[in-house]
Amino acid sequence: MKKLLGISLVILSGCATQTSVNKSTELNPSKEIDHVLFSVGATDVGTEEFMYVYRKNNVNNDSAYTKSDIDEYFELYVKFKLKIQEALARGMDTTRSFLNEFNGYQEQLKKPYLTETKVTDSLMREAYDRFSQEINASHILLTVKPDASPSDTLAAFEKISAIRKQALEGGDFARLAKENSDDPSAKTNGGNLGYFTSFQMVYPFESAAYNTSEGDVSPPVRTRFGYHIIKILDKRPSQGSAEVSHIMIRVNPDKKDSIQARNKIFEIHDQAMGGVAWDELASQFSQDINTKDKGGRLRPFTVGQMPYAFQEASFGLNEVGAISDPFMTPYGWHIVRLEGKSPLQSYEEMEASIKSKINRDVRAELNKKALINRLIKENGFNEISGVKSIISPHADSSMTSGKWEATELASDQNVTLLSVGDRKYSLNDFLDFVEKEQKNNSYAPDVYLNILYDNFKIEKIVEYEEARLEEKYIDYRMLVKEYKEGILLFQLMEDEVWSKAVKDTVGLRQFYESHADDYQWKERVKATIYNAADRVVLEEIRRVLQEADVPSNKDLETKYNKESSLTLQIEEGDFEKATNKVIDQVDWVKGVYEVESEGRYNLVVVHEVKEAGAKALNETRGLVISDYQNELEERWISELREKYPVAINEAGLNYTYERLK
Asked: Are 391 and 431 contained in the same domain?
């Protein structure tokens, strides 16, 4: 039964989370023709499907391609298809529960085929390379909203360009930031951002920083916040991660309290340097309530994850146990002790984390853009000139408030707006999309209309590709089929075999009684084995067993396994010959025996020698249920063969033998 289930359910053990796909037909070598292999009732099963599944399930088993191996698998596959035919006949593929489960799997299966692997790989490698370098930079920001008018955008660009010109001509960048930047912090820090690395700034800003040389000022760069120029102050190799403990004294706005806090942290520092236990100082004085009772220990961090002064003080320590001078952050005064440093992890160690970050980052849009460009080239895309302009005069404030209606549009709404491959989409399709997707927003109506139109195009381009995935990729087609049939088979087997064998207590007992000869005990002993790590423990156990009130096995294991769970192991039960190495070394006579085996010491108490005889149902219930399930399944298969006659196409079978050699 397990082998049969493997045909369809092996895919449920991990394929849904695969990170790469085979967008080729490796498991279906070129020049193969799809012949009919066999039919189940009126349904044909092709050689392509069978050979694909066979190769997949034997991908690392080169010896599994003999005729007898293929025949064995073929018989299993016929039985499998008989069950699937029955599931389809019952309409199990139309139930709400099936559709919900299957559609969820299918959405996951689509994802790897709707991504540009080369783009993702390139972005991942770029991100890792940037992790290896940390940048200290200052910036000047001129705020520009994403939906700003062209005139406002141009004005901001011209202003930031003029500021950059002053910086390039020798103007003090910090002064320019204080005078011009819309970043509130620039008034106090001159626009300085401290050190940062990959994923700690928005992607366009990050790219501009890494593409600008040390000492230079970048060209204006647009982000969702507005226009920036960036001055690169320093570039250094990755500091890796640091783990520190700290003691913190909070600072209140009152000047007197600030002086007291400063004096206090310096006194604590003197004590720490003088040899007072760090953990005691943290517990007694630190005002970080989350760490004071843990010796002030913090989780490891990298550049950009802590306030600048805290970060630099921590990474400035070189030896474990070294203690920093007191320093101040927005949270108060600190001293830190280095607990450890680790270098930047390897690409392989960070790969999964980087990929996850890319999928949540604006970088994902680069992948999507590359995908759309590829699909346009592969599938064909055409916009009918002038059609969209029919709606443009009607885009008003009601659209940006999410209340626009197309009912008063006088033009012919069925005119073709665009086409993808052989599919055409009318103006009316777009209008329906607008009414459904419009939301309240701050864009100008004409800008928002263009955004909706771009979204409509992308949706239709992707929809067309999704509809063709099974045609384009045999791997995807077969995976979808396997998932669908696997879900159906699991539910059907549950209904017809697994649950039935457990619930049918009368049938189970009748099966047991009619097959009683299959469930027999051989001669056996009832015994207890005390398995000890050393002879001293074993001798103690021997003395305990001679006492009038012998503790339970559980109490004995609890007593002796306080320091190590392996000091004493106790096993008791009925043992047949050749089922236990220790039992096989003692006389099968009631008594106590000592056996040394595999470096451990055993005390064996033989309580009783039992003669061969029938096993009671409760003693072998699991095995009986398994055998009963197999019988129910075989009966059911016979019924299905009558219901859905199986016809084998010998030519197709011979073709399969030939191709699988």
From this structure: yes
pLDDT band, residue 23 (cuts 50/70/90): low
Could you tell me if residue 96 is inside a domain?
no
Residues 6+ apart with CB under 8 A from 647: 38, 39
What amino acid occupies position 38?
Answer: F
Angle, CA of 190, 196 and 201, to the nearest 5° = 85
Query: Measured between alpha carbons, how far is 529 from 47 in angstroms, rounded to an integer?
Result: 57
Element spanning 437, H or E: helix 427-437
Q: What is the structure's pLDDT at 31?
A: 63
Beta bridge partners of 232: 137
Residues 314 and 306 sit within 8 Å (Cβ to Cβ): yes
DSSP E strand boundaries for 267-330: 301-302, 327-329
- pLDDT of 336 reads 98
Tell me, yes or no, whether 393 and 512 share the same domain. Answer: no
Count CB atoms within 10 A of the CB of residue 538. Answer: 19
Question: Which conformational region is residue 332 in: left (phi greater than 0), alpha (psi within -120 to 50 degrees), or beta?
Answer: left
Instruction: Provide the CATH number for the domain around residue 528.
Output: 3.10.50
Angle 241-244-248 from CA coordinates, rounded to 5°: 135
Q: Closest Cα to residue 23, out of 116, 120, 124?
A: 116
Determine phi and psi for 569, rounding to 5 degrees. -120, 130
CA atoms of 500 and 498, how far apart (whole Å): 6
The pLDDT of residue 413 is above 90:
no
CB 88 within 8 A of CB 488: yes
Span 547-594, pLDDT tens digits: 989 999 999 999 999 989 899 999 999 999 999 999 999 999 999 999
Backbone angles phi, psi at 504, to 5 degrees: -80, 75
Instruction: Give me the chain's average pLDDT, please.
Output: 91
Structural domains counted in the chain:
5
- Which spans in 515-565 are helix H? 535-545, 553-560
